[in-house]
Amino acid sequence: MCRISLYVLATACLLLAGPAFAQVSSYAFVNDDGSLRIKGRTYRLSGIHVPRTAQACRTFQRPLTCGSRAALALDFRIGTNFVRCDKRHKNNDGTYSAYCTVNGNDLAAYLLGRGWALALPDAPFEYQALEKIARHRGLGVWGFPVERRLR
């Protein structure tokens, strides 16, 4: 009798505990601002900042929009694969900050490594290093002078 009640108690604890972070895995739609829309919710990649869609990178010929290129790079990386996101926390604007992967590959690291995102000050060391490498190589937004606009 004692063994059965101990088993029931242990099972109940495991069911109530749940995962450390809530996970979602499904197809994703890439929004213009580089966030992901999965199952009706918006997720922002944790630890990075993706340039706004309207933010322009200047070339010698004409201005290019950096933000839309970042979203396009993210959409290209995801393709038709499932995206798995581990929610970190809910932001004030109702979106979720999340660590997201495709086939086990970190999407934030992908954007940073190609120069289409900036590492936030509290980002992991790996993200900071990837941004510095992309900046040194002149990739993505680091290959153009970025137009700075205050709103």
Structure description:
The protein is of the alpha+beta class and 151 residues long. The chain has one domain (20-143): OB fold (Dihydrolipoamide Acetyltransferase, E2P), CATH 2.40.50. It has helices at 2-17, 66-78, 107-113, 125-137, and strands at 23-26, 29-30, 36-38, 41-45, 48-49, 56-58, 63-65, 83-90, 96-102, 105-106, 118-119. The strands form three sheets. Strands 1, 2, 3, 4, 8, 9 and 10 form a seven-stranded mixed β-sheet that branches. Strands 5-11 form a two-stranded antiparallel sheet. Strands 6-7 form a two-stranded antiparallel sheet. A hairpin with a 5-residue loop joins strand 2 (29-30) and strand 3. Helix 3 (107-113) packs parallel to helix 4. It is globular and about 35 Å long. The N and C termini lie far apart (68 Å). Residues 8-19 and 147-151 have low confidence and may be disordered.
Task: Describe the structure concisely.
The protein has helices spanning 2-17, 66-78, 107-113, 125-137, and strands at residues 23-26, 29-30, 36-38, 41-45, 48-49, 56-58, 63-65, 83-90, 96-102, 105-106, 118-119. By secondary structure, the protein is α+β, with helices and mostly antiparallel strands.
- What is the H-and-E element order? HEEEEEEEHEEEHEH
Number of domains: 1
Mean pLDDT value: 81
Distance between the termini: 68 Å
Helix/strand-derived category reads alpha+beta
What general outline do the C-alpha atoms trace? Answer: globular
Annotation, overall tally of beta strands: 11
CATH top level?
Mainly Beta
Flag low-confidence runs: 8-19, 147-151
Q: Percent of residues in helical segments? A: 25-40%
Report strand %: 25-35%
Q: What characterizes the major β-sheet?
A: 7 strands, mixed
CATH architecture assignment name = Beta Barrel
Rg computed from alpha carbons, rounded to a whole number of angstroms: 19 Å
Number of helical stretches of at least 4 residues:
4
CATH topology-level fold name: OB fold (Dihydrolipoamide Acetyltransferase, E2P)
